[in-house]
Amino acid sequence: MADIFISYSRNDRDRCTVIRDILEKLKVSVWFDAGIGAGSSFDREIEREIDAAKALLVLWTEESVESDWVRNEARTGKERSGLIAVQLRPCTLPLEFRAVQADVLPEGAEGTDNAIWLGILERVGELLDRPGLVEYTRLKEKGNVAGWKSWLARYPKDPLVPDVIDNIVESAMPDMGQQLAGERAKRRGMEAELAELSAASKAQSSEVATNARELVRLRRELDQAESGQQEAEAELIRFREAAGGKNKGDGLSGLGIVLNDKIAIYLAALLWIVAIRFIWEPLNQLIKGYGALGDVFWIAFGIITLAVPAALLTIKILRKRKAMLREEERLAQTATD
């Protein structure tokens, strides 16, 4: 929140802006309604800023005198004993404010050692507990090293202390002031570069951490996959042994649980039934001479997706049966011998 709230007429915005800029150079924070954006609650924001401000500066002109807003804002400042008044142009003040001193501030006098402007700064200093503002302004106009040192000794806690030190340096050693300005610029550049490097380092650290987590996850998935592969291979060996197909050349590799007699026979029969029912209708249409290209497509689709797997499964079942018969004959011959 700002130290000073400025109440003014919109017609005097340019001059109000000049006064605002000069006060801010004195390290006095200022608020006026130029900062209110579209859609903001105008009256609520103004009330909030007035309540937070330590002083209210009203700029009287013939236009602001007629403004209910300005009058209400000035009244609030008066009630809180924080009102500072000045006339930008001679005008007749509202009756209730005629007891408050409001001299005419000549245009361009703000920021100088003009008596009216210094009177405003004196009142600002009283309300903000910064009594060195008037003397600082005078020294800016006609200052010397001794004067700046004296000011610094009397007001060591004022926000303007860094500026005063710069003024002392510039007054005593003009070249040193330029060198200090260059050093400050260099320092700001280094700080900005350091901030960029820090941000880049944080981003890189975050990326490294993310990659490390991803590697851990991939390694865990790889271990799980290898474990699953080993289990599958062991299961396949057990089924091969159960089927009598220990040798890779016996044509039974890869059969797995499908070669269980009852399941395999049931599955093969089911595939043949579904294949025949799927192919029969379009094939019948072709036989009768009513077929179309779509019937040929469905026949081919049924053969590829149903009949061919059924045939392959049937061949595997028959090969298994034949292998089992050979194994039985071998065992019988061994027993006989």
The largest β sheet comes out as: 4 strands, parallel
Q: Give the proportion of residues in helices.
A: 55-70%
Individual helix count: 11
| Strand order, largest beta sheet | 2-1-3-4
**Strand and helix order:** EHEHEHHEHHHHHHH
Q: Could you give the count of β-strands?
A: 4
Helix/strand structural class: mainly alpha
Distance between the termini: 110 Å
Give the overall shape.
Answer: elongated
User: In terms of per-residue confidence, which ranges show pLDDT below 50 for 5 or more consecutive residues?
Assistant: 245-259
Mean pLDDT score: 82
The rounded Rg comes to 48 Å
As a percent range, the share of strand residues is 5-15%
Attribute tags:
337 residues, mainly alpha, 4 strands, 68% helix, 5% strand
